[in-house]
Design goal:
With about 100 residues, the chain is an alpha+beta fold. It has a single domain, classed as Nuclear Transport Factor 2, Chain: A (Roll). The chain is about 35% helix and about 30% strand. A hairpin with a 2-residue loop joins strand 1 and strand 2. The radius of gyration is 14 Å and the shape is elongated.
């Protein structure tokens, strides 16, 4: 049981260590925490290898957040070229969310 709970505990711990946006209220943080507990959010570790391969770089930061009503992983990547950039992943599926001009 402890081994089964370890990934969830790690995810909650990592999410808690990440800085929260200034606009995030305590109720928004609680909602994200509950989504993790319910299994509606998958751990970033499940997506890490694929994201690094797809973008030919290293993930240097990941933060659980909300974007347009969806729970997302905001991921900062350091590619071989050296200029960091961010991508968003749907936190339930790992599908990359395309950026548009409003982002």
């Amino acid at each position: 049981m402890l081994l089964r709970a370890a990934p969830l505990m790690l995810l909650i711990g990592l999410a808690a260590l990440q800085p929260q946006p200034a606009i995030a209220s305590s109720s928004e943080r609680e909602e994200l925490r509950l989504a993790v507990e319910r299994g509606q959010v998958r751990p970033m570790s499940q997506f890490l290898g694929e994201v690094e391969r797809r973008h030919n770089g290293r993930v240097i930061e990941a933060e659980l957040d909300r974007h347009r009503g969806r729970i997302v992983w905001e991921v900062k990547i350091l590619p071989a070229q050296g200029r960091t950039f961010k991508v968003r992943l749907d936190a339930a599926t790992g599908v990359e969310i395309p950026r548009d001009s409003r982002d």
